[in-house]
Write a structure and sequence with these properties.
Helices cover 0% and strands 39% of the residues. It is mainly β. The protein has one domain. Strands 2, 3, 6, 7, 10, 11, 13, 14 and 15 form a nine-stranded antiparallel beta sheet that branches. Strands 1, 4, 5, 8, 9, 12 and 16 form a seven-stranded antiparallel beta sheet that branches. It is globular, with a radius of gyration of 17 Å.
Length: 241
């Protein structure tokens, strides 16, 4: 199995108020990594749902959380600048950007503290520049993802996901708010058209470092590489706002 490396800081900037103790709540994690095949219980011991020979499409996702050490934010919202994903094609020896969008995404709500509960109606707020912002209600957090993209899953040597974000104040006289955001990615079998009890979610490629949203643009990222190329000479094509 390919040995992956997470190229980023190892401690999240905040902790979501979730009941789970899974590692991604604390720091970046690798799930399927750079192996879009399977997964088997050898690859991911906790995966007990459907498996496929090839997970042949890919997409980035992101989640907007409140922080566990402060009250749920009520005086602000989180604006998304763009969300994107690229992978390193070992055959061509180059990064391939499969998506980078400011508006083409879907979403859902998750429960707090029980993240496994999901809800419809994620309620994007249209901004004047054509982008969207989000303000999940108390007891909820918002997940967004792009449509699936095809990629050369037989020659993958690295994955990079990114999302640019900024906090928009709505009440300058209110208490200070603290929103968190995390970026990650999924492999999705092209034959799957919807989640089901046998496949309620996707195990994921991995998760990036959870960032704090501020009143200036920031970009949260996730990097995975198998070490077969020089990251300094071939930096990931992150699109920042």
């Amino acid at each position: 199995m390919i040995k992956e490396q997470i190229i980023q800081a190892q401690i999240n900037e905040g902790r979501p108020p979730l009941s789970t103790n899974l590692g991604w709540v604390v720091q970046p994690q690798t799930m399927m990594g750079l192996n879009p095949h399977g997964p088997s219980t050898v690859d991911i011991p906790w995966w007990t749902y459907l498996t496929f020979a090839n997970w042949d499409t890919i997409r980035p996702w992101a989640v907007i959380f409140p922080d566990s050490i402060q009250a749920h934010p009520v005086n602000s919202r989180v604006k998304i600048g763009n969300i994107g994903l690229a992978y390193w094609n070992k055959l061509s020896g180059a990064w391939v950007t499969v998506c980078n969008t400011s508006s083409d995404f879907l979403g859902q709500l998750h429960g707090i503290p029980d993240f496994t509960n999901t809800y419809s109606g994620y309620l994007p707020i249209a901004e004047s520049d054509g982008r969207f912002s989000f303000k999940p209600a108390p007891g909820r957090c918002t997940e967004i993802w792009t449509p699936r993209c095809t990629f050369d899953y037989t020659n993958i040597g690295g994955v990079c996901c990114w999302i640019s974000h900024v906090m928009i104040a709505e009440n300058l006289l209110g208490n200070n708010d603290k929103w968190l955001i995390q970026i990650g990615g999924d492999y999705v079998p092209s034959s799957v058209t919807a989640v089901s009890p046998e496949l309620p979610y996707f195990p994921g490629i991995g998760t990036g470092r959870i960032q704090v949203c501020t009143n200036t643009w920031r970009t949260a990222t996730m990097f995975l590489t198998d070490g077969s190329f020089d990251m300094v000479a071939n930096p990931p094509p992150v699109v920042r706002i």
